[in-house]
Amino acid sequence: xxxxxxxxxxxxxxxxxxxxxxxxxxxxxxxxxxxxxxxxxxxxxxxxxxxxxxxxxxxxxxxxxxxxxxxxxxxxxxxxxxxxxxxxxxxxxxxxxxxxxxxxxxxxxxxxxxxxxxxxxxxxxxxxxxxxxxxxxxxxxxxxxxxxxxxxxxxxxxxxxxxxxxxxxxxxxxxxxxxxxxxxxxxxxxxxxxxxxxxxxxxxxxxxxxxxxxxxxxxxxxxxxxxxxxxxxxxxxxxxxxxxxxxxxxxxxxxxxxxxxxxxxxxxxxxxxxxxxxxxxxxxxxxxxxxxxxxxxxxxxxxxxxxxxxxxxxxxxxxxxxxxxxxxxxxxxxxxxxxxxxxxxxxxxxxxxxxxxxxxxxxxxxxxxxxxxxxxxxxxxxxxxxxxxxxxxxxxxxxxxxxxxxxxxxxxxxxxxxxxxxxxxxxxxxxxxxxxxxxxxxxxxxxxxxxxxxxxxxxxxxxxxxxxxxxx
Length: 472
Hints:
Number of helices: 23
Helix content: 40-55%
Shape: globular
Radius of gyration: 26 Å
Largest sheet: 5 strands, mixed
Distance between the termini: 63 Å
Structural class: mainly alpha
Strand content: 5-15%
Number of strands: 9
């Protein structure tokens, strides 16, 4: 009887304790929600989003967040509250305040969800790491490798891949009745170039005419899997970072390919390594690790070709003399940036004022390239329209558009043409000291491929409807 009584007594105590803990958790959650709601209540935005991050997570889940964010700014203005502690800004003049070299707002936990995992552990990379010391340590040894000056050393590798790309198109699509998916083939070309400049070996996409071992598909599926959780990163503790959940053993083809190339290179003799020299990025990475083990309209192209100003396989230097090509590239990247969610930052202890709204310390603030690149005050009332000619404006007009800018991005300093100030607003690769290292390589490929492609082929295709699925 005594044991039975004691057991019932303990059970009752445990139930009471569980009830108290649950009530306390609910109370804390309510207080936290109320506190977040009240301290940002002066910033306009949908009320539902101000109460729960589930709302903005659902927007990303649809794959249409870029349009939703654009419509929110049209409805509420340049500063919009889109989460209990999250603010979106569309005014290009705020880029320097949020991402500039002087202010250095820290990255938010948004990037924790992007960080890759191997065997349950986070693998810091130069883009996703939030630790400034780690970022500085990883970036400093290799930053110069991605400069436009250094990339010219790898131009022969890109040219040889370009030649093979054209030979494959000639081989498979000489019959005009055979439909060519040019987007797919350009993507295959880009991945083979990455293989060549990094490992001196193509991935084999052009040879196969398709994805190799699911590398490209794997990258897309990864972002599809993690994108929604960037809006509520704590959910990863219930999923990818939960020690009770079995670690995924699914293959990572891209990681396997890279590791195999590294092992091959490390197994070479010193003389064999010496023969390779600094032919590719991998050899440069290994060298740096040894130092520090902590690590146009088409007519423009035709005219230039006829006048001998560009060669059959256009070089980087030649393509930079084509102002309308530059305008087209700028317009394309303006309208379709590779990243179309706000680059989140943490407001420092001083707080920040943007467009008359004071944003308190600890709030998450960010700007979406998709939204900023459609800002009518900067790009005109036709910002939703493809019009490369907007970039061919007078210097006086450009100066008026860019008035107030204090710094210039790394991309802009390499431009031949006077687009320097406007290029700072090009946030598709991020801005400030955390901008993307690979942006120069991306531009290098574009400026070699497009004029070479237009010289060789008569590219004409009626406009067809397409949609953008935003998962990053």
